[in-house]
Amino acid sequence: MDKIKASGVISHRKRQKGLHSPKLSCSYEIKFTKFVIFIMQRKMGITRRMFLTELARRKGFRVENELSDSVTHIVAENNSYLEVLDWLKGQAVGDSSRFELLDISWFTACMEAGRPVDSEMKYRLMEQCQSPLNTPESEVPSCIARKVSQYSCQRKTTLNNYNKKFTDAFEIMAENYEFKENEIFCLEFLRAASLLKYLPFPVTRMKDIQGLPCIGDQVRDVIEEIIEEGESSRVKEVLNDERYKAFKQFTSVFGVGVKTSEKWYRMGLRTVEELKADKTLKLSKMQKAGFLYYEDLVSCVSKAEADAVTLIVKNTVSTFLPDALVTITGGFRRGKKMGHDIDFLITNPGPREDDELLHKVVDLWKKQEFGRDLRRYASHERKMILDNHGLYDRRKRIFLKAGSEEEIFAHLGLDYVEPWERNA
Question: Which PANTHER family does its entry note (predicted)?
Answer without folding.
Answer: DNA NUCLEOTIDYLEXOTRANSFERASE, DNA POLYMERASE TYPE-X FAMILY MEMBER
